Amino acid sequence: MQSAQATLENIRKDFPILNRTVRENKTLVYLDNASTTQKPNQVIDAINDYYKNHNANIHRAVYALAEEATELYEKTRDKVANFINVKDRTEIIFVRGTTEAINLVAYAWGRDKIEKDDIIVTTEYEHHSNIVPWQLLVQEKGAKLEYIRTDDNGELILDDLDKYLATGKVKLVTFSLMSNVLGTISNSDEIISKCKAAGVLTLVDGAQAVPHMKVDIENLGCDFFAFSGHKMLGPTGIGILWVRKSVLETMSPFHGGGDMIREVHKYETTWNDLPYKFEAGTPNIADVVGFGAAIDYLSNIGMDSIRQHEIELTKYALEKFSQVKGLHVYGTPDISKRGGVISFNFADVHPHDVAQIIDEEGIAIRSGHHCAQVLMEKLNVAATSRASFYIYNTKEEVDKLVDSLNKVARIFKL
Ligand code: 7TS
């Protein structure tokens, strides 16, 4: 059995970008993993190998290369099914990412199913991609969008959910399993069981959760589930929408075109089998293959070890942050209820100034509204700074961040 330290050293060796220097010859400290993660050689090599040795269009031809490409593409679907514990692979749809997945549901499910005065419930800590598609839909239908509020600890106030469900008008409740700003892990069991009891469908945005903890779709019990490959070591431009079969079978197509059809005549078309009905056109084959390699990589480490590593880093960082003068950290102090995302602000210092001073040390953190302006309004700030961790981050990197935060405090005389 390898020690945790040895494992971490080996993991870091797989990520070539972590060796590079930035600014004044500073070793890169990458702490913007909630935005996107870095890629290991295994993922880069899988994409290279695909283009060098197997490139062809899928599902269309009988020649050897086309068969190989199709097999590689479909193999990733099986890997995804296994990774999130889905029994029926035809419920898994390849999309560009979480944003496209949620838009697909809003169009292909929502346009048929949402009517005037219906209610869609979301939360105050959603990413814009789990707000804007619903705004567009309710505006078109004369329906309503309501919000479950967050409390001072950044947790959802579930009394709000009870209140909306009691109206009998709610058709969908949609929430992220982990907030990209506060790191809060939603109380999914309670939300989904309440919705089930009320006969209301649920969509879970797993963009921040799937990369960082074991997610079991069967246990979760939702109806729609979305996540992105690039936040879990995979390439950009590939993501997953999972839909429960009984719901998927009631949905209209999203995009029309090649591959999603069975027969096309001059004035009517019949649809292909699931999931191909929802995968129109030539898909992002190479990145699906790369995504498969990312899933293998994470599976080899084990999602429970990844969660444990992030808990340790986050606990360590929260302790150190509490000693920095003038620093305010958002979100719950209960480590069991949060992931490796820490948003913070210095009183009277603009987050962009913070990020700039930190960047001089080669440390990449994000400053801004994090595509969560509804939450920023709630917190009564325009922006926050945010550090977010992943499998390759170390306590030494947290120390470097803390040193530079102390530098901010000194410069601004806090
Ligand atoms: N949902 C959540 C919870 C997210 O954090 C993000 C991206 C998305 C959806 C959208 O994912 P995409 O892959 O379709 O873009 N979050 C962030 C972030 O926090 N900083 O940059 C992107």
Walk me through the structure:
This protein has 414 residues and is α/β, with parallel strands linked by helices. The protein has two domains: 5-30 and 302-411, Aspartate Aminotransferase, domain 1 (Alpha-Beta Complex), CATH 3.90.1150; 45-299, 3-Layer(aba) Sandwich (Aspartate Aminotransferase, domain 2). 40% of the residues lie in helices and 16% in strands. The protein has helices at 4-13, 41-54, 64-83, 98-113, 132-141, 159-165, 188-197, 217-220, 245-248, 285-301, 303-321, 351-359, 373-379, 395-411, and strands spanning 21-22, 26-27, 29-30, 92-95, 119-123, 144-148, 170-176, 201-205, 224-228, 239-243, 261-264, 269-271, 327-329, 341-346, 363-364, 366-368, 384-388. The strands form five sheets. A seven-stranded mixed β-sheet has the order 4-10-9-8-7-5-6, sandwiched between helices. A four-stranded antiparallel β-sheet has the order 13-14-17-16, with helices on one face. It has a two-stranded antiparallel ribbon with strand order 1-2. Strand 8 (201-205), helix 8 and strand 9 (224-228) form a beta-alpha-beta unit. It is globular.
